[in-house]
Amino acid sequence: MSRASTSPEPGSRERLLQAGLTLAQRAGLKALTVRAVAAEAGANLGSFVYHFGSREAFVDELIERWYAPMFAQLQGLADHPADPLAALRAALLEFVGWVVQHRAFLAHLVGDAAAGEAGARRFLATIDRRHPAVLLGLIAAAQASGGLRRAEPLHQLMFLLAALALPVLLTQFLAAREIAPAPFVGLLVPLAIAPERVAERLDWALRGLAPDR
Description:
The chain is built from 12 helices and no strands. The chain is mainly alpha-helical.
């Protein structure tokens, strides 16, 4: 029987990817068994195999599909910026906004990698060539234009992300694991994730990195 004659119904590939993302956001990549994804999508196992071939290929495509829009946005902001410092600020706000939106999935991703999930490890093994590289380029450009003090760009990126993204992930961890008093976590979460609070922390950090006058 030819491949064409066994083609699944139109739209099943998209339904499988959406179902996988739903499951991964709920319970992490470990939830992405072929049967679970097919059931969530209302598709049969043959449809999964037809489109992706294997669970490994499906997980890789799912992660890239989830990540690619944010990465493309950062790359667009980094392309020939007229004001590198303003572009850096916009890129950091874009990135941290994405972290806030996807904080549950990110927490699962890191936990899955620590537990040996191969797809998560493959993705994280390439992280240095992804958004950190774009942000480092913008930091170097901002230094060259006089917007930031001269220092090791990677050290400055660590400082900025510790101020911006780390509180988001920390409060997600505290809330998910229920290891701190709920009222206290309830006070921390808005401070960590509200866009105006993120922007406030970013402005504090950039003032701290401004060149000495």
